[in-house]
């Protein structure tokens, strides 16, 4: 009897619950039908991707202005409305990717960007291995030395050793430069896979940066052939007026060029005589020392 009573009670309780639930469901259903505008907010993945692209575009543009840039100027540079810029900057500022100078009202990159890149730079074998040799070279010739690689058809500076000279180069680790107007770019192109080489060359517009910039594909291809023959590249004030650079390759264990380093300075200091009598020999030895540490067995 006790068992039957319990079963009866459970059955009755379940029926009551089911009846109440059914009534509630129909009431809610009728209410939502009367108010069709009430619905769950859907997330638009396309909108999210667009916001991400815009935020990254802003970060890339801010990297070109180390002293900061105003919202109005930034809006002109990236082609977005001020309200959109302000909204994205607010988010980036909250996450410390961007900081605002309260005195100038300008925005610049925050320290979180540096935090992201810490392992990328620290774990780079080429940077770590080359550092002592490039520092020694810079001390011996007392000129700025850059270490570069190719990235997306451009030269990117991954290390810089500054000289003690009063006139110095305005360049930063992480900044980029064209391949066709730089000595390091010419060296990197000289040993590139043919398909990649042709892809990069086809996208170069050869815009003159100085009066001595090579502005035709034919002459540039001749220049690359010369680099292959002599084993180094020259930038005779082709990228910046009054600055001359000479660059040498760094080889890996397979004998492929994986990076290039340069000595740069004003043309009155880095003369062709200085290059021929001093820099070529010193840089060739430096190139071999670094390459040996990467497993290169050539000469």
Tell me what you see in this structure.
With 299 residues, the protein is an alpha+beta fold. It has two domains: 70 residues, Winged helix-like DNA-binding domain superfamily/Winged helix DNA-binding domain (Arc Repressor Mutant, subunit A), CATH 1.10.10; 170 residues, Beta-Lactamase (2-Layer Sandwich), CATH 3.30.450.40. Helix content is 51%, strand content 16%. It is built from ten helices and eight strands.
Distance between the termini: 101 Å
Number of strands: 8
Order of strands across the main sheet? 5-4-3-8-7-6
How much beta, percentage-wise? 15-25%
Which features characterize this protein?
299 residues, alpha+beta, Arc Repressor Mutant, subunit A, Beta-Lactamase, six-stranded antiparallel beta sheet
Task: Quickly describe the structure.
The protein has 299 residues and is α+β, with helices and mostly antiparallel strands.
What is the topological layout?
Layout: H1 2-34, H2 45-62, H3 71-78, H4 82-94, E1 98-101, E2 106-109, H5 111-122, H6 125-141, E3 144-151, E4 154-161, E5 176-177, H7 183-189, H8 194-202, H9 217-230, E6 233-236, E7 243-251, E8 257-266, H10 272-293
Antiparallel strand pairs: 1-2, 3-4, 3-8, 4-5, 6-7, 7-8
């Amino acid at each position: 009897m006790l068992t039957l009573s319990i079963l009866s009670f459970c059955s009755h309780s379940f029926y009551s619950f089911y009846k109440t639930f059914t009534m509630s469901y129909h009431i809610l259903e009728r209410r939502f039908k009367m108010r069709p505008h009430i619905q769950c907010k859907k997330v638009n993945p396309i909108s999210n991707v667009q916001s991400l692209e815009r935020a990254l575009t802003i970060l890339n543009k801010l990297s070109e202005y180390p002293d900061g840039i105003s919202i109005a100027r930034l809006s002109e540079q990236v082609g977005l409305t001020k309200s959109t810029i302000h909204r994205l900057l607010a988010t980036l500022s909250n996450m410390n990717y961007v900081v605002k100078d309260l005195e100038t009202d300008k925005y610049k990159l925050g320290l979180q960007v540096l935090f992201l890149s810490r392992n990328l730079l620290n774990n780079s074998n080429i940077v770590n291995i080359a550092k002592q040799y490039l520092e020694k070279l810079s001390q011996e010739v007392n000129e700025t030395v850059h270490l570069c690689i190719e990235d997306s058809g451009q030269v990117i500076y991954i290390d810089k050793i500054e000289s003690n000279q009063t006139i110095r180069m305005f360049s930063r680790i992480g900044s980029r430069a064209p391949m066709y107007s730089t000595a390091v770019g010419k060296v990197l192109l000289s040993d590139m896979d043919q398909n990649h080489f042709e892809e990069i060359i086809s996208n170069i517009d050869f815009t003159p940066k100085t009066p001595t910039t090579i502005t035709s594909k034919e002459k540039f291809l001749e220049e690359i052939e010369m680099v292959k023959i002599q084993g180094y590249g020259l930038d005779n004030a082709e990228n910046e007026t009054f600055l001359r650079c000479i660059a040498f390759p760094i080889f890996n264990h397979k004998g492929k060029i994986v990076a290039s380093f340069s000595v740069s300075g004003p043309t009155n200091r880095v003369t062709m005589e200085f290059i021929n009598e001093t820099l070529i020999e010193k840089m060739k030895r430096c190139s071999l020392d670094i390459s040996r540490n990467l497993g290169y067995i050539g000469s």
